[in-house]
Write a structure and sequence with these properties.
Helices cover about 35% and strands about 20% of the residues. By secondary structure, it is of the alpha/beta class. It has a single domain (about 1-175), classed as Class I glutamine amidotransferase (GATase) domain (Rossmann fold), CATH 3.40.50.880.
């Protein structure tokens, strides 16, 4: 199982680091990918992360794609042709598409990936798309799409992705390994 995490300038730190950590603990091979040719990406709170690859260097063998939120990170993801094309391709292949905070409304919805799907996003970010039926739930999984409201839901979000990818037993094992209480 292999995951792709797209990072753009202005990403939200917890929304990136918590899922990254959970994926790695669950045994998911995870690549952090910069959306441009600079591998150093600065977060919304000025933390710099060095990506494993750039978007132009990635292969086609990913099972999961994940978009952290944060501003202006979500808008920067939306404006990346490579990100949008990869999302559409992976969605058409029924791969796991996951996004948190502003990214469901800013990136997934405008691409039509949430059409007919239940989803959630950060309160107030609904206006970033034409989708008017976002749910207020913290984490929503509908088919191959997983969305989450905010950084506060990052653990449950990441564990839901692990469950979809590797099963409930692996998700529970990973939850226990980090002593995450539900």
């Amino acid at each position: 199982m292999k995951a792709l995490i797209f990072l753009a300038t202005g990403f939200e730190e917890a929304e990136f680091t918590i899922p990254y950590d959970i994926f790695k603990r669950a045994g998911i091979e995870t690549d952090v990918v910069s959306i441009d040719e600079n591998r150093s990406i600065r977060s919304s709170h000025q933390l710099t992360v060095v990506a494993d690859k750039t978007a132009s260097e990635i292969s086609d063998d990913y099972d999961i794609v994940f978009l952290p939120g944060g501003m202006p990170g979500a808008i920067n993801l939306q404006q990346s042709w490579l990100v949008c094309q990869r999302l559409i391709k992976m969605c058409n292949e029924n791969k796991i598409i996951s996004a948190i905070c502003a990214s469901p409304s800013a990136v997934l919805a405008p691409l039509g990936l949430l059409d007919g799907k239940k989803a959630t996003c950060y309160p107030g970010c609904e206006s970033l798309s034409d989708k008017k039926d976002f749910l207020s739930d913290g984490v929503v999984a509908d088919g191959n799409i997983v969305t989450a409201k905010s950084a506060g839901w990052a653990f449950e979000f990441a564990l839901k992705i692990v469950e979809l990818a590797l099963g409930k037993e692996k998700a529970e094992e990973t939850r226990k390994a980090v002593y995450y209480l539900i």
